[in-house]
Amino acid sequence: MPPEATARSPFAGCLIMILAVFILVGVVAFTAWLPFKQAGEMEKFTAPSPAPLPVEPLEGNEAKVKELTARLEKFRDELAGDAAKPARLELDAADLNLAIASFEPVKQLRGTFRIREITKDALVIDINYKLNGRPRLAKDGEEGPLGSDPRYLIGTLKGHPLLARRELALKVDSLEVPGKTVADGFMQHFSTLRLFEASVKDPVLGPAMAAMTRSELEPGKLVLSRIPGEAAPEVTSDAAFREGGGRIIKWLGILACVFLAFVGILVFVGLRKKRTA
After folding, report:
1. How far apart are CA 141 and CA 161, in angstroms?
2. CB-based contacts of 106: which residues, under 8 Å, 6+ apart?
3. What is the DSSP string of 200-234?
């Protein structure tokens, strides 16, 4: 006959350890499987090769760049000045495309974003957005044990400017990839693009974004402004900016808590039986 699982036998303790290890292996396996699952879904609507978008040429546009720079500097000076005075900057699609081609803070958008048009409801943007693909072992020259081959999101998004927590971002309302359906889970992750995240602490752009109180769309133009007496919006939390990643971390945390709680209950029951034996 097999040994009985009494409080005085080691079988109860072994059973607890076996169950604990089994649950731990399950959590680890789920954590390792999740990136492959996400990559597999992403491959359904992304491409393995880029389709770079045209960038406004600077040669021949020197006068336009100079005029745009002057308007931006004037707006920055107004924001740094008397808060009781209004400040307003209007930018059309040509201005935004020229800014992408010219200015350092948005250089990562070159060949990746191109403003097609601005309506009263949305910025219509053609994109060639680089994403991390399926995990794999690192190749020579890559840092760390793992790497990935890039995937490219090629399509058109519609969005609107989002000014929150002293940062100008882009809220994505819709995303179209020709001939493909974008997964809802990806849209949750892609819902907010922090295009100026690296500029929040910039000594020039940081204070300028912090001084703005409104970002809105009018037919044919993006309008950034400071309205005297109007408080800067602080309605969007950091959690909203990282909505997609936060969901994954939350579920992993729940699994870890369930695992720890289960092990704790088993240990408590085992100790209680031992005391009453």
Report:
1. 38
2. 99, 100, 195
3. TT-TTHHHHHHH--EEEEETTEEEEEE-TTPPPP-
pLDDT of residue 79: 96
Dihedrals phi, psi of 221, to nearest 5 degrees: -155, 150
Contact 249, 177 (CB under 8 A): no
**Would you list the DSSP string of 78-105?**
HHHS-TTS-EEEEE-HHHHHHHHHH-GG
Rounded-to-integer distance, Cα 161 and Cα 225, Å: 12
Distance CA 61, CA 101 (A): 11
d(CA 132, CA 150): 5
pTM for the model:
0.73
Q: Report pLDDT digits (tens) over 188-213.
A: 888 999 999 999 999 999 999 999 99
Tell me the two tokens of residue 153: 């999101």
Task: Please classify residue 198 by burial: count the beta carbons closer than 10 Å to its beta carbon, then call 0-12 exposed, 13-18 middle and 19+ buried.
Answer: exposed
pLDDT above 70: percentage of residues in the chain: 72
Block residue for tokens 């950091």 = 238
Sheet holding 87-91, edge to edge: 87-91, 221-226, 214-218
Show the CA angle centred on residue 13, arms to residues 11 and 16, nearest 5°.
Answer: 110
* Alpha-carbon gap, residue 277 to 8, rounded angstroms: 8
Cα distance between residue 271 and residue 197, in whole Å: 52
Say if residues 168 and 161 touch (Cβ distance below 8 Å): yes
Length of the chain: 277
